[in-house]
């Protein structure tokens, strides 16, 4: 595209009073050689917008720099389709955070304008990369309540659905239940209702748009969103089907109660799990007969958190067991002379379930107490004693019961494969022998997806996720770390049946969004507008595999020579590969090592005594935090220039080297928090940046510079109030070291 | 593992609910009640723990628990309970069950504590008196001046009442010693005070009614209870006095109104009437929270009120000289006297002993509060 440049400087919101606009115009026209540079009192006003539109129409301007406010605001006003539009943040980053009419403030504004124009000159108008023969069929894996609901929701939205269930019947755990908690309207009666799973089952099996495969497993999943080839196998027969997107609804497995022998499971016949209790109730149509002697159990004890919220078993809350025990207490109470005793750590009944809990509190035959259950022992005739400490009934007591029910929790089906694969990776690092031994000795769990991805066959584990297939539960529910595969229900996080049904609809919606975006060549999420894509110059690739290893979403496979092969519909455009590549061959049309590097190199110190810093900031958390502190008119040191990155994972070390060798006094990296409570929009970006950052010492050593000059800080979007101090004190520390000796070279 | 074995009892829970503790299931153990209570000890305070004992039907723990007698039913707990669990009402129901469960023989406990049995409880003296009077030929209205001993000779009354009260007293002593022993058995601390000292302190406190003053929202109950308390003391002295008159100087009733014994009798009777009327009006007053009292409590206060009213009427009708009314009124009065003094180990009056022992024990074990 032949570019025709135009620079438009706004004087509103204090910009005109804070900086010398004439000098800025000079920078654009004289230093940068831009033919058209206009100013306006209020650029976002209809007159201001018209001014720009007029130039686009009559002058053919197609590459614009809007030097006004933050790109995070007024994006609808400054939207000019068919052009490259670069926003220069003079308001938040310059006049709102610095002293007006100061030499350093003016220099800052001029640097930002220069960097914006450089980006404009270096960048190009992107064109979407739309793959051919995209398929729109949605594959739902798992035929429980979640999977069946997902299938129905997708069919209702007009999509063809393939539903795969490994068991011979649909229905999952719901089929094993005696009754369920009433859903829908908030009423207190009835307290237990039929699951009506057969109704759902018939609806699914009778739907012409849903093809149901029972007793079927996924043998192989290859390809990418819109172009999956999924091989399913049923009784030895394999079949490959074309799939567009996948809803993972494989649910949970009960926690292995044999690990809870201190609670008597496996030792005493009258200690059962909550799932087994359903079976007992179902078998005799609600009558509770205990396993040891088939006598009616009239005193039933429920032990909550049997394994959950316990670092030795499951560190998390399985969310549904409290309500389940309250429901099962109602089974017991169908006999007016029987009673249920519930021993809990805390009753957790979120939302409308609180009403259900309160209703149980009103029943004289539902007895509740907080307690630390320490064990279960058996007396004569199968009578059990639940031993506890710190209960509301006293410091140390044991309660007599006929039957003990352990409220055991959920393990996502994705957990076991993850553990196996983690072990395999670990063994592999110890050599081929150890690996072979591991494969031979470790029982291989059932895999679910069997992806033919370079990064492994299953959804990768995530710190703190405990095996659940989620990637960011706050900002992006349903999204796994494999684009095009959306988790719903208890495989995503612990939940109850009614939540799982809502979840199914949510995940289907995301799958449909995915199909819609790939059809437009757009990133699916979180950069849901972005049509740029990584375009590596493979001629120069050294097959180091860093990109294929680091991509947080497994978007890159590699051929037998180790050359990366992008499955572009899996890509989320975070640029982590760009940061990873030592050869710097990965570029986007408007985002590349060269563009950012040139921007950095354009920053100059006016003299040897003046300090200059570069801040590479994550545009998802740190950048909005900077905008917010500007909104509050907090002051920061004028010697730092911020350059937004799509994700700090795109940080290439060459930029640090470029900056320091050119005389920049220091580089500050602002990324999101990582680790267990990570906030990174791209899950692993800031963590990878930190990893790369740990290697920065070598670069600095080579240059004989102090390591303190480069620092990485983690900042959450909400920490805008701490940010000025973080930035200013970093700058103070570096200033104490003195100017970069390379200055002026 | 050591630890007490607990056997929850659903029937007992239901029993408590039906006897006036219908709100007990509302309790969610926040312990606001124990925090606002001004008469609860610092260690193992009530009524939080009593509420969960009630919810779990832990009868054993309730019927040997001295703490329920430390409560003076001011209902601060009920006022501040965030969930409307009314601990005050539950505790008062628990006290009723306490009396019932500790009664010897237990059948008496049921007859007297359960309001629906009140008619039966009153019928017993009626039938008893009718048999005595019938078999001795005293059934009917005697001629001449109204002298009650003409219908019911003093000796008959004394024999009947001495035997009945004696038996009741024995049963009461048995119940109290059982209570005392169970308190001692469950005790886990060293005694800080001797029994004598603690008992003296307790009785002194009773004379002053100082514990009642702690009950903020119900401070006016102090005067009412004090009137009834001293009325009973006065009437007790009167009874001794008249017995002395009868046997030593052989002064026989009716005693002239000018006699000091008569003064004491009449003053006590007025105190009883005024006191019990105050209690009734107190209970009916709106104190900013819906006040409720168990029917067990109502039964007793009504009996006391009727005792006072019939006593006065007996005297007034006699002075008016209407024999046909005076003798039946005297008969009715005697029935209420019987109820009050023979049934005391099973009625609300039983709290005298239990409360005395509980407070004494709390002082001995250092669980007392500062008054």
Query: β content of chain B, as a range?
Result: under 5%
How many beta-strand runs of chain A? 30
How much strand content do the residues of chain A show? 15-25%
Oligomerization category of the chains in this entry: heterodimer
What helical percentage do the residues of chain A reach?
A: 25-40%
Low-confidence stretches of chain B: none
Order of helices and strands of chain B: EHHHHHHHHHHHHHHHHH
* Mean pLDDT metric of chain A: 94
* Beginning-to-end CA distance, first to last residue of chain A: 36 Å
Q: Helix- and strand-based class of chain B?
A: mainly alpha
**Mean pLDDT level of chain B:** 89
Structural class of chain A: alpha/beta
The Cα radius of gyration of chain A reads 31 Å
Instruction: Specify the biggest β-sheet of chain B.
Output: none
Largest interface: A-B, 27 and 23 residues
Indicate the overall shape of chain B.
Answer: elongated
What does this structure look like?
The complex is a heterodimer of chains A (745) and B (371). Chain A has 21 helices and 30 strands. Chain A is α/β, with parallel strands linked by helices and 745 residues long. A five-stranded parallel sheet of chain A has the order 7-6-5-11-22, covered by helices on one side. In chain A, strands 13-20-14-15-16 form a five-stranded parallel sheet. The longest helix of chain A has 23 residues, at 497-519. The radius of gyration of chain A is 31 Å and the shape is elongated. The two termini of chain A are 36 Å apart. Chain B is mainly α and 371 residues long. Helices cover 65% and strands 1% of the residues of chain B.
Question: Could you list some keywords that capture this structure?
Answer:
heterodimer; A: about 750 residues; B: about 375 residues; mainly alpha; 17 helices
């Amino acid at each position: 595209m032949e570019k025709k440049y135009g620079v438009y400087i706004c004087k509103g919101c204090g910009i005109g009073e804070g900086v010398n606009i004439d000098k800025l115009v000079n920078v654009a026209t004289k230093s940068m050689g831009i033919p058209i540079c206009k100013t306006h009192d209020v650029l976002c006003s209809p007159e201001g917008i018209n001014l720009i539109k007029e130039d686009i129409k009559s002058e053919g301007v197609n590459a614009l720099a809007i030097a006004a406010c933050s790109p995070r605001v007024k994006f609808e006003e400054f939207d000019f389709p068919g052009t490259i539009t670069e926003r220069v943040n003079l308001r938040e980053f310059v006049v709102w955070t610095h002293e007006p009419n100061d030499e350093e403030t003016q220099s800052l504004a001029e640097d930002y304008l220069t960097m914006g124009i450089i980006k404009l000159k270096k960048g190009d108008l992107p064109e979407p990369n739309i793959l051919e023969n995209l398929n729109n069929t949605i594959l739902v894996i798992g035929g429980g309540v979640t999977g069946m609901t997902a299938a129905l929701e997708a069919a209702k939205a007009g999509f063809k659905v393939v539903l795969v269930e490994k068991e011979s019947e649909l229905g999952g755990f719901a089929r094993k239940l005696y009754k369920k908690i009433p859903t829908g309207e908030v009423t207190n009666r009835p307290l237990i209702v039929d699951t009506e799973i057969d109704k759902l089952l018939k609806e699914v099996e009778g739907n012409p748009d849903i093809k149901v495969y029972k007793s079927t497993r996924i043998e192989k999943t290859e390809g990418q969103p819109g172009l999956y080839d999924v091989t399913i196998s049923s009784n030895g027969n394999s079949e490959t089907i074309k799939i567009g997107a996948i809803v993972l609804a494989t649910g949970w497995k009960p926690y292995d109660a044999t690990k809870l022998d201190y609670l008597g499971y496996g030792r005493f016949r009258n200690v059962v799990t909550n799932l087994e209790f359903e079976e007992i109730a179902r078998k005799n149509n609600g009558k509770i007969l205990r396993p040891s002697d088939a006598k009616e159990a009239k005193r039933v004890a429920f032990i909550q958190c049997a394994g959950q919220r316990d670092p030795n078993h499951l560190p998390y809350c399985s969310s549904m067991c409290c309500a389940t025990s309250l429901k099962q207490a109602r089974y017991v109470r169908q006999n007016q002379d029987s009673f249920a005793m519930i021993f809990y750590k805390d009753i957790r009944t979120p939302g409308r379930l609180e009403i259900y809990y309160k209703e149980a509190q009103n029943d004289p035959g539902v007895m509740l107490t907080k307690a630390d259950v320490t064990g279960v022992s058996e007396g004569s005739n199968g009578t059990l004693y639940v031993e506890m400490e710190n209960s509301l009934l006293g410091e140390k007591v044991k309660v007599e019961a006929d039957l003990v029910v352990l409220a055991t929790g959920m393990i996502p089906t994705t957990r076991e494969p993850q553990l196996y694969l983690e072990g395999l990776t670990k063994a592999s690092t110890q050599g081929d022998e150890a690996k072979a031994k591991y494969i031979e000795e470790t029982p291989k769990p059932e895999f679910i997806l069997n992806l033919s991805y370079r990064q492994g066959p299953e959804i990768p584990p995530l710190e703190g996720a405990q095996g659940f297939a989620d990637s960011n539960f706050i900002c992006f529910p349903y999204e796994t770390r494999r684009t095009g595969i959306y988790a719903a229900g208890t495989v995503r996080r612990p939940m109850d049946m009614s939540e799982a049904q809502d979840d199914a609809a949510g995940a289907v919606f995301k799958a449909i969004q995915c199909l819609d975006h790939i059809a437009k060549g757009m990133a699916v999420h979180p950069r849901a507008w972005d049509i740029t894509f990584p375009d590596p110059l493979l001629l120069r690739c050294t097959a180091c595999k860093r990109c294929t290893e680091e991509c947080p979403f497994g978007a890159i496979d590699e051929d037998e020579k180790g050359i990366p092969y992008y499955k572009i519909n899996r890509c989320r455009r975070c640029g982590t590969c760009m940061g990873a590549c030592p050869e710097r061959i990965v570029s986007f049309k408007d985002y590349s090592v060269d563009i950012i590097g040139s921007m950095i190199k354009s920053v100059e110190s006016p003299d040897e005594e003046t300090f200059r810093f570069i801040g590479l900031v994550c545009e998802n958390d740190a950048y909005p935090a900077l905008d917010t502190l500007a909104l509050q008119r907090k002051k920061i040191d004028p010697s730092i220039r911020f350059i937004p990155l799509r994700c700090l994972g795109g940080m290439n070390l060459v930029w640090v080297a470029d900056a320091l060798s050119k005389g920049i006094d220091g580089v500050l990296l602002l990324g999101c928090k990582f680790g267990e409570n990570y906030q990174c929009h791209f899950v692993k970006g800031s963590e990878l940046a930190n990893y790369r950052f740990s290697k920065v010492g070598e670069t600095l050593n080579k240059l004989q510079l102090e390591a303190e000059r480069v620092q990485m800080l983690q900042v959450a979007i909400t920490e805008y109030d701490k940010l000025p101090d973080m930035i200013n004190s970093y700058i103070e520390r570096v200033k104490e070291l003195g100017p970069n000796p390379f200055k002026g070279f | 593992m050591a630890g007490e074995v607990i056997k929850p009892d659903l029937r007992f829970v239901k029993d408590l609910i039906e006897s006036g503790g219908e709100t007990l299931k509302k309790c969610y153990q926040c312990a606001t009640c124990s925090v606002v209570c001004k008469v609860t000890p610092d260690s193992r305070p009530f009524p939080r723990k009593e509420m969960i004992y009630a919810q779990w039907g832990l009868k054993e723990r309730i019927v040997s628990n001295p703490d329920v007698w430390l409560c003076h039913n001011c209902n601060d707990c009920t006022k501040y309970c965030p969930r409307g669990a009314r601990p005050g009402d539950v505790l008062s129901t628990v006290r009723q069950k306490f009396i019932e469960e500790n009664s010897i023989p237990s059948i008496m406990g049921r007859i007297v504590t359960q309001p629906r049995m009140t008619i039966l409880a009153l019928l017993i003296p009626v039938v008893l008196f009718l048999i005595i009077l019938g078999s001795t030929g005293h059934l009917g209205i005697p001629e001449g001046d109204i002298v009650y001993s003409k219908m019911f000779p003093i000796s008959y009354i004394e024999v009947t009442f001495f035997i009945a009260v004696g038996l009741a007293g024995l049963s009461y002593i048995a119940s109290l010693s059982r209570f005392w022993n169970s308190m001692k058995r469950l005790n886990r601390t060293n005694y800080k005070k001797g029994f004598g000292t603690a008992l003296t302190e307790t009785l002194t406190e009773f004379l002053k009614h100082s514990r009642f003053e702690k009950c903020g929202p119900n401070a006016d109950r102090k005067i009412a209870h004090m009137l009834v308390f001293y009325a009973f003391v006065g009437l007790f002295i009167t009874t001794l006095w008249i017995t002395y008159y009868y046997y030593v100087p052989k002064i026989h009733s009716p005693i002239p109104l000018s006699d000091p014994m008569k003064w004491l009798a009449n003053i006590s009777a007025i105190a009883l009437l005024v006191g019990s009327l105050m209690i009734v009006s107190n209970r009916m007053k709106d104190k900013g929270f819906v006040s409720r009292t168990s029917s067990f409590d109502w039964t007793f206060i009504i009996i006391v009120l009727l005792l006072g009213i019939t006593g006065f009427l007996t005297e007034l009708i006699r002075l008016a000289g209407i024999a046909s009314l005076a003798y039946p009124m005297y008969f009715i009065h005697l029935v209420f006297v019987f109820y009050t003094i023979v049934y005391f180990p099973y009625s609300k009056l039983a709290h005298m002993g239990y409360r005395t022992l509980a407070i004494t024990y709390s002082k001995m074990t250092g669980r007392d509060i500062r008054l």
